[in-house]
Specification:
By secondary structure, the chain is an alpha/beta fold. It is 40% helix and 12% strand. The protein has eleven helices and nine strands. It has a seven-stranded mixed β-sheet with strand order 1-8-7-2-5-3-4, with helices on both faces. It has a two-stranded parallel sheet with strand order 6-9. Strand 3, helix 6 and strand 4 form a beta-alpha-beta unit. Helix 1 crosses helix 4. The longest helix has 34 residues. The N and C termini lie far apart (47 Å).
């Protein structure tokens, strides 16, 4: 009975997170509009005043609320897959780091579970690994538009998310002991995700290297084995109408609606596959306020090499065939 109950709690914890990820934004807008028609109209009006006054608040970075990040539910969330963390070396506090993470997948499950929640010991050291970056404050950069949604933005900032804007990223890196996670592949990588195939969108993504050089922040590659297997997506022809529609919406909205499903054909319950989050060794970079394109290209090449080496070192232990390459697109 206990294992059955435990499995149910784990599944429910994942479903609530997916529902939050997909529907909290539009649901919050609808709830506030409905409250305007009741005796509680003062609540949405007051919040609207705060929302407008604090319009640029997210640009200053997350508002970490450790109580939210240490909910017991996150233990069940991480145990569902389960999510485990491998650290190749410690990241000493006192300075800030940029952690480019790959692959994006549908919903960045591995990175969220390992860094944003306390389920893997990122907070309070409840597990032997002590989390992926003990002594550092994790910050996960996300799409700017999410931080315009009422209530959703408060939840996101409390969890440690921040807009992926230059002003915000500069603000985070100006503080000591920060771990700034950037999903480099973004929406483009989410569209190309295929189970069993390890492909990252990185060749033309150099903004994170430029950011690292301006702040002198080490680049620490992060790779999540199993992320692409958590959901299934249909294989669409490159010239199909649906693929053109997805890419058009990505250019307009900054993200693309993906078709995906998990256990039982449900989009809110990913497959129960082990997710291994590997945190690599830092690539030291000099501090150059105005890095040249040549310097950016040089360190970008070094980073790509460092990521490929990390993938090769760990792929067999993480259940990937020795012949499987890491495709850099």
């Amino acid at each position: 009975m206990a294992p059955t109950l435990g499995s149910a709690l784990q599944a429910l914890s994942v479903v609530q997170w997916m529902l939050t990820f997909l529907f909290l934004g539009p649901g919050s807008v609808l709830a506030l509009l409905l409250l305007l028609r009741t005796r509680l109209w003062i609540v949405p009006v007051t919040y609207a005043g705060w929302w407008l006054w604090d319009w640029h608040g997210p640009e200053r970075g997350p508002r970490h609320w450790d109580w939210l990040r240490n909910w017991r539910i996150w233990d069940h969330f991480c145990d569902y897959f389960p999510i485990t963390v491998i650290r190749e070396c410690p990241l000493p506090p006192g300075r800030s780091y940029i952690l480019p993470a790959h692959p994006h997948g549908i919903s960045c499950i591995g990175v969220f579970g390992a860094f944003v929640t306390g389920g893997c010991g990122a907070w309070g050291d409840p597990k032997p690994l002590g989390g992926p970056c003990p002594g550092l404050r994790p910050n996960l950069a996300a799409l700017e538009g999410l931080f315009r949604l009422p209530l959703y933005r408060e939840y996101a900032m409390a969890a440690g998310l921040c807009p992926v804007s230059q002003r915000c990223l500069d603000s985070v890196l100006a503080r000591p002991s920060q771990a700034l996670l950037i999903m480099v592949g973004g929406a483009a990588e989410a569209l190309e995700g295929t189970p069993g195939r390890h492909r990252v969108t990185l060749r033309r993504r150099r903004g994170f290297v430029r950011l690292a050089l301006r702040h002198g922040a080490p680049l620490v590659p992060v790779y999540v084995f199993g992320e692409q297997d958590a959901f299934r997506t249909p294989v669409l022809a490159e010239r199909s109408l649906l693929r053109h529609l997805q890419r058009g919406l990505k250019r307009i909205l900054g993200f693309a609606p993906c078709l995906f499903w998990g256990r039982g054909g449900l989009p809110v319950l990913p497959f129960r596959v082990p997710l291994t989050v590997v945190v690599g060794t830092p690539l030291e970079v000099p501090r150059v306020p105005r890095p040249s394109p040549e310097l950016v290209a040089h360190y970008h090449g070094l980073y790509v090499q460092r990521l490929q080496e990390l993938f090769e070192r760990h792929k067999v232990a993480c259940g990937v065939s020795p012949e499987t390459p890491l495709i850099i697109a």
